[in-house]
Amino acid sequence: MPSGRIWIRWSKARSAHRWSGERLELLLRVILIAGAWELTRNLETPAPILIAEYVGVATGFYGGPEPGLMNGVLDRLARNARPYEFGVAGAGPIPGGPATPPDNDD
Description:
This protein starts with a helix and ends in a 25-residue tail after the last helix. It is built from four helices and no strands. The radius of gyration is 15 Å and the shape is elongated. It has a single domain (about 5-85), classed as N-utilizing Substance Protein B Homolog, Chain A, CATH 1.10.940.10. It is mainly α.
């Protein structure tokens, strides 16, 4: 089971899309939990890239509405967990500071 905070965010996002936990197949739940973990812990990779990767994984396994569900749930989670990446006013500083290119004085 994911940590409490991730689970709460995931549950809120999931409920917004009207999919119950029982309705989600095990594989889809695992992909969503992995995506939620990465969105909240791997702050070095931009959220849109992570979302696209997990939607791609879901597309590899499912041909129906599941990739769209994956996109919607992870997008909502990302907007809640990383508002600074989506231009939300007052979202606060970027964790670890903004990315800066290395100095190359060669």
